[in-house]
Design a protein that fits this description.
Blueprint: H1 11-27, H2 32-42, E1 48-50, H3 51-58, H4 62-74, E2 78-82, E3 89-93, H5 97-122, H6 127-157
Antiparallel strand pairs: 1-3, 2-3
Length: 158
């Protein structure tokens, strides 16, 4: 891997960072192996590695990598690409965070709609309905605010 040949790069420190940050992500609810794969891609200079490179770097089986990249692709954090004439897929950290934000917005809209249905099902005056109403209101609020925050962040980077 080209990353390992970088002058001055302490690969053991990089591996410790990968494991520590993956633990932090998993403590926040992110599945452990996808977290490790995501961070391994993140620390790669190219932002891209093959499944074999990931397995070697993380010292895990190819099957573990397969499941992890499938999850990361489902949540739009990683994309798959193949170089012309190459036989192996490369997995790459998404560079367009707008795509990730659009997907998150769609999820918030789905959750808001689901909570609306739940409130109607259990009754708005019930305790369950009140809990669902609070969740619905939070999802609706986040669905409006997160895209605005993302645009503000992007404008600040320009």
């Amino acid at each position: 891997m080209a990353d390992e040949a970088m002058p001055g790069r302490d690969e053991e420190a990089v591996r410790r960072f990968v494991e520590n940050f993956a633990v932090t992500m998993s403590e926040a609810g992110f599945p452990r192996m996808p977290a490790r794969v995501f961070v391994a891609l993140l620390v790669s200079e190219s932002g891209s590695r093959t499944a074999a490179e990931l397995a070697e770097f993380l010292k895990v089986s190819p099957a573990a990598i397969s499941g992890a990249v499938r999850y990361l692709m489902q949540v739009s954090l990683v994309g798959r690409e193949r170089e012309p004439g190459a036989r192996r897929d490369h997995y790459r950290v998404v560079e367009d965070w707008h795509e990730v934000m659009v997907r998150r917005d769609q999820v918030m809209q789905q959750w808001t709609a689901a909570m609306k249905e739940g409130i109607e099902t259990v009754g708005a005056d019930s305790e369950a309905g009140k809990r669902m109403e609070e969740m619905r209101d939070l999802f609706a609020f986040l669905g409006k605010e997160i895209p605005l925050l993302y645009e503000k962040w992007r404008a600040g980077r320009s």
